[in-house]
Here is the input.
Amino acid sequence: MTDQAEAATRAAAPASPSRAAPMGASHRRTSPIVPEQNVAGRALVFVIAIMTFLSCLTLGAVSLVRDTASVWESQISREATIQIRPVDGLDMEQALADAARIASGFAGVLNARIVDRAATARLLEPWLGSGLDLDELPVPRLVVVRIDETAPPDFATMRSALTSQIQSASLDDHRTWVDRLVAMAHTTVTIGLAVLVLMLSATTLSVVFATRGAMDGNGHIIEVLHFVGAEARFIAAEFRRHFLWTGLKGALVGGVLAVLVFLAFGWWSSRNFATPEADQASALFGNFAIGLSGYIGVALVVLVIAALTAATSHFTVVRSLSEIDLSQQASS
Here is the structure.
């Protein structure tokens, strides 16, 4: 009989009141019923940590895409863009000022801002490099019109007023882009949620099989406890408590690693905020911050996986005890 089995027998067997305990026995440390450290337990912690890490990364990516798409939609719906193409004989600076003045005169327009030469060169820098001379290139200039979302202006009238005074001007109210963006965002979030469900399903199966494998290695302890008369509730509670802590340790490791990855991306984004590459990445993905809801989701994933591990061990113990009782009834 192994040391764990002997410890299980001592824990489950009631103490006899007729025999006095030997001196110093009360200070003797007994072994736990379920072994705290073994190869199966360490492997289970490792498996749970990996699957929790991947699940949290998937959840964070879904949260990031959803938040970024929401920001895109909100920003685009609040703005319209006037583009003025350079043509012969056109005073670009005067045309920009006229376009801003015309747009500002419409109800529903909060303000009109001219994108200056430095900002225009910065927008083109990722593709054309630095040190651009805009006078040598036929680069259109922009006027950003911020509008009231609750009471937008009459874009058709504004477009006619602009083209009548500035022939090379065009107005883009982004409505087509908003519709496409909303559709793309919903599709992306749906795909991300499907991937998250698949990842959580894979995590569930991995935890179930890993827990059952660890339980099989401790099957002799269940048999000894059952044979000496321990109640099924006592046996299940001991294993459930042990595997709850095991699952919690693995899930915490995976969750903390995922949080560190998100914090590292956020730190990198803030450190490179002033570079053109970071501007393009921020335009596509935001600042790589998953927000409070993302961190709450990571905590929920950790708790769910720990509870799943404990529940799996509980049902495995109950099933093992049922099989033992059936085999005893069959043999008798």
